[in-house]
Design a protein that fits this description.
- This protein is α+β, with helices and mostly antiparallel strands and 452 residues long.
- The chain has helices at residues 66-77, 82-95, 101-109, 111-115, 118-124, 140-152, 154-158, 161-170, 225-237, 242-249, 253-269, 332-342, 344-349, 359-368, 378-401, 427-439, 443-451, and strands spanning 14-18, 24-28, 97-98, 136-137, 173-183, 186-198, 208-210, 279-286, 304-310, 322-328, 352-355, 373-376.
- The protein folds into four domains: 14-164, no CATH class; 173-268, no CATH class; 274-376, no CATH class; 381-451.
- It is 41% helix and 16% strand.
- The longest helix has 24 residues, at 378-401.
Length: 452
């Protein structure tokens, strides 16, 4: 572990074991040639050796024997479990060790070769520069590899993710680990073996190109395109939170937000989202209840917003409300400005304009949507009606008894029933209403308001 040029898990070796009985055993776990190796694999068509092909390419790599050899020796002759034997190596790889001058001399000899391989340079060069004596060498990827060997033995090295990564790299591919849509209640990871190409033409601005596929993932992305749109759909249709979606994906809030924010910005900038709007709704929205200072000053920005909603019915006559926009402020001017920005063609297409009972919004509609039919939206109609019934009930209660409602007063126990439509009441609730009317000499006033 502390001598990277020798004895590493990518190589092989010999072992001479002398047992307590005096018997000696010799183990040979040197590297082997791959099964597809041939006597002429380093020669050209004329039988001449191709310089560097056996030393500077993947064809010069043998199948490592160190992991299998040490594992076999431990199983047959060892007395300690693998977890205990490998633990010091994992700790040194993860926590690092201090390089001595002898280590530096060996690394310096190969520094130029390290620089030509970014994945190797990331380990054996210190931010692109050679290490110096006293620096600490960390090898987190090696620690992860040893963790897998500890859990799965030599099979984890020769048949698992480690082996697949080596094969992919030897075929000129790079591994990209991507976050995909959750499945069966757990996060999913996709490993994409990207092909790479080299341009031999000196005039090429880029010497190496890596495979990209915009329908799989954006360049340098951490999430697949499918995962990004899944998260956006959950936000829009299921009212999910960013933190909840990040938890399902097994990532942080910031990672998810950075992935979907450009897509949301593109959707916001797309004027096509305003097409086909024939029924336009408007309502106020309270965004928060904390500081209204600007976001850059530590606040949450405007508190009151005006929201515009597309209430146009689909081909089946169903209304699928879709938020079109939110603008700061709760005023007729905020709505007027938004309508002006949409342009004349948009305003002409609007046939029905719904609003809450706020005079400012009504003025904006009269000014900008003069040809549209103006209606109060159903929610506010019902809210105003139930408020009227409640007001009559309270005044009647006060007039009869001289105090606010109490549980034994006839009108007080039915206050919640009065908020429901007659068609939604059960026979029992109808009976309770009638009993209240009969018990209160002025109950007929409330009954008329409720029935009207």
């Amino acid at each position: 572990m502390v001598h990277p040029c020798c004895g590493n898990i990518g190589g092989g070796g010999f072992m001479l074991v002398r047992l307590a009985s005096g018997k000696s055993v010799f183990l040979d776990f040197r590297e082997k040639a791959p099964l597809k190796a041939s006597p002429t694999m380093y020669q050209d068509a004329d039988g001449n050796v191709i310089k560097g092909k056996s030393t500077g390419t993947w064809l010069g790599v043998g199948v490592p024997g160190t992991v299998m050899g040490l594992d076999a020796a431990l199983k047959k002759y060892g007395t300690m479990p693998l977890s205990k034997v490998i633990a010091p190596a994992i700790k040194l790889a993860r926590d690092g060790f201090v390089l001595q001058q002898g280590d530096i001399n060996i690394l310096d000899e190969r520094a130029k070769g390290f620089a030509s391989h970014p994945n190797v340079a990331a380990i054996f060069l210190n931010h692109g520069k050679p290490y110096v004596a006293g620096d600490r060498l960390h090898q987190e990827q090696l620690a992860q590899t040893l963790d897998k060997i500890e859990q799965g033995g030599d099979a984890a090295f020769y048949h698992g993710d480690i082996a697949r990564a080596v094969v992919a790299a030897s075929h000129g591919r790079r591994e990209a680990h991507l976050v995909d849509v959750p499945c069966f209640g757990g996060p999913v990871r996709v490993v994409w073996h990207k092909r790479t190409w080299s341009c031999r033409e000196p005039s090429c601005p880029t010497g190496t190109f890596t495979e990209q596929a915009q329908d799989v993932a954006a360049p340098r992305a951490l999430l697949t395109v499918r995962a990004c749109w899944w998260a956006i759909r959950q936000l829009r249709r299921e009212h999910a939170s960013i933190s909840g979606l990040a938890r399902q994906l097994g990532i942080t809030w910031r990672t998810l937000w950075r992935a979907i924010r450009p897509l949301l910005a593109a959707m916001d900038a797309d004027p096509a989202r305003f097409d086909g709007v024939r029924t336009l709704g408007v309502d106020e929205h309270i965004w928060h209840h904390v500081s209204t200072k600007p976001v850059e000053s530590g606040g949450r920005g405007p508190k009151e917003l005006t929201g515009m909603v597309n209430l146009t019915r689909d081909a089946h006559g169903r209304t699928r409300a879709r938020l079109l926009d939110l603008v700061p402020g709760r005023s007729g001017q905020a709505y007027t400005s938004w309508l002006t920005e949409r342009g004349q063609s948009f305003r002409t297409r609007v046939q029905v304009a719904t609003l809450d009972p706020f005079h400012g919004y009504k003025n904006a509609i009269d000014d900008q949507l003069a040809d549209a039919v103006v209606v109060v939206d159903a929610f506010h109609v019902v809210k105003l009606a139930t408020a009227m019934v409640d007001d009559v009930r309270r005044r009647t209660q006060q007039h009869i008894h001289g105090h606010r409602g109490r549980k034994n007063d006839p009108l007080y126990p039915i206050r919640n029933i009065l908020r429901a439509g007659a068609e939604n009441l059960t026979d029992r609730e109808h009976a309770r209403l009638q009993a209240a009317w009969d018990a209160d000499e002025c109950g007929v006033s409330t009954a008329r308001r409720w029935a009207g």
